[in-house]
Amino acid sequence: MSMVVEGVYERGAVTLKQEVNIPDKTEVLVIFNDKKSKERFLKSAGSWKEVDDSIFDDIIRQR
Question: What is the pLDDT of residues 5-53, one digit of tens each?
């Protein structure tokens, strides 16, 4: 399962702009509106880490 979520990155922390229930190991595309860039993260056991960009290519093209 994957989803698109808007968020901001401030002082080393990702803050989502809406309330979402993100199960562990769900791929999430976080769009950083303040930086005009897209970063890909994986929520895993409460932490975020970068994941392979290719899994989000279709989502990015649709936006």
Answer: 777 777 777 777 777 777 777 776 666 655 555 555 544 444 445 545 5
Please check whether residue 20 is in contact with residue 12, taking contact to mean a CB–CB distance below 8 angstroms.
Answer: no
pTM, rounded to two decimals: 0.34
**Residues 60, 29 contacting (CB under 8 angstroms):** yes
Report how far residue 33's alpha carbon sits from residue 24's, in angstroms, rounded to the nearest whole number. 24
Contacts for 40 with CB less than 8 Å, ≥ 6 apart:
27, 28, 29, 30, 50, 51, 52, 53, 55, 56
